[in-house]
Amino acid sequence: MHDELLEEELPRLWLKQVSSFIVGYHTYGEFQECVITNVQSDIRAWEQKHADELKRFMSLLLRIVQFARDLEESKFEIIRMQDSDKIDIRLQTPDLSPMLSIDAHRRWVAWLSGDDDRADKKGVEEQESRTISLGGGVSEDVPSLNYTACDDECGYCGQCSNE
Asked: pLDDT tens digits, the chain, 163 residues: what are they?
C-alpha cells in the first residue's frame, strides 16, 4: 500500500521538491502511527524516467509565462479540450467574475512583485486566531486548524503529539 501511495504522489513531491513522504492514519484526528520516508532517491529516479515529459512541461510553462508577460495587465485563460493534445490560450471574457477574492488577489500581486514578506505576514496574522462556530451560538477562538497537533519543527508528522 505504501509503495502504491508513493508512486501516485511522486509527481507532486517532485514539483514541490519535498524530500519526505509521510504516511499516517488517524481516528478522529488522532494519529496512532506515522511513517516518515526519505524519498529523494525515488524522486530523482522519477525525474530521470520522465525527463522527456518534464522538458515539454518546462517548455510549455515558459511559453505561457512569455504570453502572460506580453499581455501586460490582461487576463487570459488556458483551455484544453478533452481528448485533445493542444491547448488554447486566449483572452478572458471581460465580464467574468474574478477567480481570486480581493484579499487573495492583493496577496498574490504582492508576492509577484517581490513584496511577499508583507503578504506572508498578513497570512500568518489571519491564521493566528480564527473563530469557529461550535453550534448552538457558542464559539471558540482557536490558534489554527492544524488537527495533527504538530508544530513546524517536527514537519507535521503527528509524532509530537505522542511525546
From this structure: 578 888 999 999 999 988 888 888 888 888 888 888 899 999 999 999 999 999 999 998 898 888 888 887 778 888 888 888 888 888 888 788 888 888 988 888 888 787 766 444 544 444 443 433 333 443 344 444 444 455 555 555 545 544 4
Would you say 111 and 104 are in contact if contact means Cβ atoms under 8 Å apart? no
Written as nine digits, the cell of 12 is 507532486
Helix (H/G/I), strand (E/B), else coil: 92: coil
Q: For the whole model, what pTM was predicted?
A: 0.54
DSSP 116-129: HHHHHHHHHHHHH-
Instruction: State how far Cα 157 lies from the chain centre.
Output: 17
- Measured distance CA(62)–CA(66) in Å, rounded: 6
Please give the grid coordinates belonging to residue 10: 511522486
Per the CB < 8 A criterion, the answer to whether 149 and 158 are in contact is yes
